[in-house]
Amino acid sequence: MASFLERASSNSKVHLAATAIASGAVVAGAILGFQRLRREERIHQLKDSIPSLLDEGEAWRRMNSFGGASNENKEDLRNELLARRAQAGDYDDELILEQLARNRVFLTPEGLDKLRNSFVVIVGCGGVGSHCTAALARSGVSKIRLIDFDQVTLSSLNRHAVATLADVGSPKVHCLQKRLLAIAPWVHFDLRQEKFWDQAADELLAPWKGGRKPDYVVDAIDNIDTKVALLKYCHDHKLPVISSMGAGCKSDPTRIMVGDIGTSTDDGLSRSTRRRLKLLGITKGIPTVYSTEKTAEGKAELLPLPEDEFQKGKVGDLGVLPDFRVRILPVLGTMPAVFGYTAANHIILSVTGYPHDYVPAKGRDKMYEGLLAAVQGGEERILRHMTSGDASITMGLRVPMTPGDTAFLAEEIFKGRSAITGLTTRLTLVRWRKPASSILVRIGEGSNEQKSSNVKLHDLVCMTKEEGIRHDKEVLRGDKKPEDIYDSTTIEKVEALLKDTAKYEKYR
């Protein structure tokens, strides 16, 4: 070993190789060090180019970017001035790419470019919406529109992504912009401090300056009417949207998933949204963040409005806005963040084209169409029976229903099973009670005549085909009433389900 080292030390080639390696290491270190110093120098130059607020006396109190007298601290105002420079293009792109380096490696340069050029609208800037916005801004989305009417409250601080005590009382949209500009000053924000409503949808979801339509819309609303209006608008106008369902009363992050609206279950907001959308003919096609966690003894539940609050006036007058909830939602602060980051993750993958699996819908369209055909056939049989077998009267008869209506009944009201026996095979929909008068509705005359049935959703009950045949023979075309052939428990259950149907049917 010693002789080998002696020979190597006397070999000129070894000396040259060692010298080359050492020189290469020194040069590489010098280059990397120089690049690092240059980056730091560019950052310092950019910050130093902003006038010192300490030299401006009280000038920093004049106006902020929201059009009012500023009560922000000097660091916030320095961040705002830096953002103005960055958004005007006076910010080294290499610095941005360095900040987004991990995303760039993961998504590829082409994918990151798509994300940086994208435009996302966030509707609702509370717990879910704030975390979603923060994740998108940190990941490179450069155009973000924030829509929310509300202000930061003390109770917001357990779940909001960026709000501090200093932000209490300030609009949520302004709070998000102010805090996120300190992280990603190149992001362009469009703030809309107002409630989303269907009549303002064209303006609130309008293209960005230059005509770019939203690449994605985030529904982070917890009010059912507003939520359904937003999702219906996006569906009708083919705007990509992802909807966050209820994070309240949830505690298990392993149960949160992304799936189609037709698969979301197990919380009141999800169930009500799905039912209302089905009544509007929308049964699938909207990705949704939801939890499969089921309630159980000892778990949190929606709290009622305290009695002393009722004494202050009508419940509808107690909310911040009309029709907004006034009950207290028990929310574990971590859960809205998981919902928000899940929504942001889905948007990032979708916009960049990164491969991702999507939970399939239930795939029962043929069943819903078959149920609609069953209703059509049942109405024709009843009408022929009421007209002593006149087959001509049923020619051209229509029923005022869609496959979406039958999907709503089968899935949401009857849970995919017979109301009589609970069986789940060979299902059909039949009238519960025999019509007291003609079911025929006629409009027009001659070749322009239109004939339809007056059947309503709350007239129909889900049964197996065998049960339906018996019910049709003995009740609908016979002389018996449901009370004559079913026990009292079944009667009470069916009547309760029909009342539930009528409650939701008014939203058609």
Structure at a glance:
Keywords: Ligase. By secondary structure, the protein is α/β, with parallel strands linked by helices.
Integer count of domains? 2
Major sheet: arrangement of strands = 3-2-1-4-5-7-6
Number of helices: 17
Following the backbone from N to C, one meets helices and strands in this order, namely HHHHHEHEHEHEHEEHEHHHEHEEEEHHH
Biggest sheet details: 7 strands, mixed
Q: Mean pLDDT, nearest integer?
A: 83
What separation lies between the terminal Cα atoms? 91 Å
The whole-angstrom Rg is 32 Å
Strand content: 5-15%
The CATH class of the largest domain: Alpha Beta
Shape: elongated
Please state the second-level CATH architecture of the largest domain: 3-Layer(aba) Sandwich
Describe the protein in words.
This protein is α/β, with parallel strands linked by helices. The protein has two domains: 100-352, NAD(P)-binding Rossmann-like Domain (Rossmann fold), CATH 3.40.50; 365-505, no CATH class. The chain is built from 17 helices and twelve strands. β2 (143-147), α7 and β3 (188-192) form a beta-alpha-beta unit. α10 (268-279) packs antiparallel against α14 (403-413). The chain is elongated, with a radius of gyration of 32 Å. The relative contact order is 0.07. The model is unreliable at 53-70 and 315-321 (pLDDT under 50).
